[in-house]
Amino acid sequence: MPPLLEVRNITAGYGQGWSLREISFAVGAGEMVGVLGPNGSGKSTLLRAITRMLPERTGEILVQGVPVEAQSRRALARVLGVVPQSTDVTFSFTVEEIVRMGRTPHLPRLAGMSAHDREVVDASLLAAGLSCFRRRPINELSGGEWQRVLLARALAQEPKMLLLDEPSSHLDINHKVELMDLLARLREGRGLAVLLISHDANLTVEYVDRVLLLDDGRLLQDGPPAEVMRKETLEAVYRTRVEVTLSPWSGAPQVWPIPHQHTGGGPS
User: Fold this and answer.
1) Which of these, 26, 66, 106, 266, has the minimum number of CB atoms within 10 Å of its CB?
2) CA dihedral sign, ordered 240, 247, 195, 148
């Protein structure tokens, strides 16, 4: 079986230079992979390259062994569920109406929702903790609640893989943990693969199998958290002093930035 997602030597950008340079990696079914790196390292650009949202790209991206260019957007949406940082919606839809939009890749054109489609929507709302919000207009939601709506919409696509771009950026600590627990349950219960772009390194490495560490558009490290999250590597990538310890609960590496006032100035 080919990997669910395979990125081969991708170079991509926006017309004013390359934001990604010669990136290669693969994600298998049921695998959870975190993408870490400083601002401007190419994390969100990578997601846009995978989903065919960039105008300029070289290299090859395959989903289930087939180049993405050879697949329709509807076909890709039945495999890849995307949870963006935010989405502009101009009309005051309800939560349920937004989640129902996730069924679009499965519906024949001009066809209505079947009993199965409604069951999938109900299950997606329940999984995201939104069942009691289903009738609420989306313009009444908090940022964290809206993020969960976007996740529920992606789940309604019944994808084999979730691609998430900073899904916890608007969440408090409790809801961040709830979201990551949910992703772990989806991976274990449904066999979903997860590619998670995040700035929250300490929480991410508690859950993922592998870390992709980007810097200046290049993939510097690809491996288990214990191998990637090393002091010397992280100080070079983030351009600041850090200390790396092990979680007393899980043994996962945890990164602690050292304030300049305690180092006698900038990073040495």
Assistant:
1) 266
2) negative
